[in-house]
Amino acid sequence: MSKILAFTNQKGGVGKTTSTANVGAALARAGQRVLLVDLDPQTNLTKGLGLVDAKHNVYGALLGEYHLKAYPLHDKLALVAGSPALSGFEKVKGDELDREFLLKELLEPVRERCDYILLDCPPALGLVTLNAYACAQALYIPLEAQMYATDGLEKVLELVGRVQRRLNPGLVVGGVFFTRHDKRKVLRRETAEQLRAQHPGLVLDTVIRESIALGEAPHLGQDIFTYAPQSAGATDYQALVAEILTR
């Protein structure tokens, strides 16, 4: 039975989609069968991995219009496409009984065929995100070590507490990790140290350094290991996956 990991943060632009794509790619390179699910209405994960004009997406599957469709990307790596229509998911399904478990029910039949399912959550803490939290075993929270970084983190941790009490008692926060990190910048270094002190054991050792290659790869529809396997970004995501697996 696969492990379901959700990558989440209330703040946008922190490398959540980049992390979902590259952690998934690294797991697949390590021999794991990985399914990526794009839950963000911006569909950056779908576009950034080169999937264009997908006829089937997670929104249509959630509405029961068709079965869940996974598009193969590489050996052992597949993607369920996202849809801009996910922005209206709460309006369509908000009054439905057990609405928080629709994604869990959708993924259940494919769990035996995967080792890992990675969920790229939207920045909004709405019904789509609740569905992700309700079926995940662990959350990973990317953030930038800068002013106001704790705002998004605290909101996520608050929601996690409510989900644990009401929907998914087995949910844990697997870890927080810093993206676009530059240890030479005093503010970023101090913010990282502050968060490590506030949340001991929660902040991962691995940091994802600022990397031009990480920004370039999605424009070519590639993960970092395909685009620049010798880059700092590839090295850092390889290390992040190694740390995730040990935890």
From TrEMBL:
<dbReference type="InterPro" id="IPR027417">
    <property type="entry name" value="P-loop_NTPase"/>
</dbReference>
<protein>
    <submittedName>
        <fullName>ParA family protein</fullName>
    </submittedName>
</protein>
<dbReference type="InterPro" id="IPR050678">
    <property type="entry name" value="DNA_Partitioning_ATPase"/>
</dbReference>
<dbReference type="InterPro" id="IPR025669">
    <property type="entry name" value="AAA_dom"/>
</dbReference>
<feature type="domain" description="AAA">
    <location>
        <begin position="3"/>
        <end position="171"/>
    </location>
</feature>
<dbReference type="Pfam" id="PF13614">
    <property type="entry name" value="AAA_31"/>
</dbReference>
